[in-house]
Specification:
- A hairpin with an 8-residue loop joins strand 8 and strand 9.
- By secondary structure, the protein is mainly beta.
- The protein has two helices and eleven strands, in the order αβββββββββββα.
- Helices cover about 15% and strands about 60% of the residues.
- The protein starts with 10 loop residues before the first helix and ends with a helix.
- The chain is globular, with a radius of gyration of 20 Å.
- Strands 1-2-3-4-5-6-7-8-9-10-11 form an eleven-stranded mixed β-barrel.
Length: about 280
């Protein structure tokens, strides 16, 4: 059952969800038309696929301020494996609001530093980027497993470059994505302590903006992994990510295989926790 009518959602939340869904639907449909049109033109060019291997380390923290509000932050570092060389470092913080009925909305910003996409490159250029995101999430819970849906809009401001040097100004790209996730409990214990879960997800990312010519389709991101609840508020996760990404040229693609390891830490406001228990 999609909705729990025992906990009615507020009128303001309904209005917000409807507006966000209309915006996402219209933008997604327009983007899909562009994907098909540019995809047909790109078929006339010879497709080139560059295979790469990465490792990814992630540290995330969720601080529950109240039953309705949370602050989420994370740090991610992605490195080439052959040779071992840093490729990207990102810092993100966002605020999440519980809308009720398993719906949440979030908004935040990220600061991203990216090096050359070729591990053999001798360039020392680091390109800074600011990303602003708006998320709408919905979870479906069943006995022993569940699904989640994430709709995301991103406004990306990427620093301009010329001749391997940073110059004034930014290149603006809007990116839309939808990610479907699945989680299945393999081992379950009281209070989720020492529990083990299997996770899988698939996401599609679409670019929009006047600077996008060929790569309206940005990437397809597939993930599978195991999540282990090490302590009551700390979980570790080992996974595999495959990213198939189209480059600016339209006929070149990255096929990236990534081994990921993450640590997830959750905290609650002590006053709110005591009040909730009372």
């Amino acid at each position: 059952m999609l909705w729990n009518f025992k906990k009615p959602i507020s009128r303001n939340s309904v209005v917000l969800i409807r507006r966000l869904m209309v915006i996402l639907r219209n933008t997604f449909l327009n983007s899909m038309i562009l994907v098909l049109s540019f995809g047909l033109s790109a078929q006339t060019l010879e497709k080139k696929i560059h295979k790469q291997s990465f490792s990814l380390f992630s540290l995330s923290s969720t601080f529950q301020v109240s039953p309705k509000w949370s602050i989420i932050s994370d740090v991610q570092e992605r490195s080439f494996m052959k040779p071992i060389k840093q490729n990207q470092l990102s810092l993100r913080i966002q605020v999440q609001h519980n809308l009720g009925n398993d719906w949440t909305a979030a908004g935040g910003t990220s600061y991203v530093l990216t090096r050359a996409g070729d591990p053999t490159s001798l360039s020392t250029l680091i390109i800074p980027e600011i990303r602003i995101n708006q998320d709408l999430n919905y979870k479906q819970r069943f006995s022993g497993f569940g699904f989640s849906h994430r709709y995301r809009m991103e406004e990306r401001f990427i620093r301009r470059t010329m001749n391997d040097t940073l110059i004034e100004g930014h290149r603006f790209i809007e990116r839309l994505s939808y990610t479907l996730s699945f989680e299945f409990n393999l081992l379950k214990s009281k209070n989720n302590f020492r529990s083990l879960a299997f996770k899988a997800s698939n996401g599609i990312f679409i670019n929009a903006g006047k600077h996008i010519v060929y790569n309206t389709f940005d990437q397809n991101r597939l993930y599978t992994g195991l999540n282990y609840q090490l302590y009551k508020n700390i979980a570790i996760e080992l996974g595999y990510i495959n990213i198939f990404q189209q480059r600016n040229s339209g006929n070149e693609f990255y096929n990236r295989n990534i081994v990921s390891f993450s640590i997830n830490h959750k905290m609650r406001n002590q006053y709110q926790a005591v009040k909730h228990e009372l």
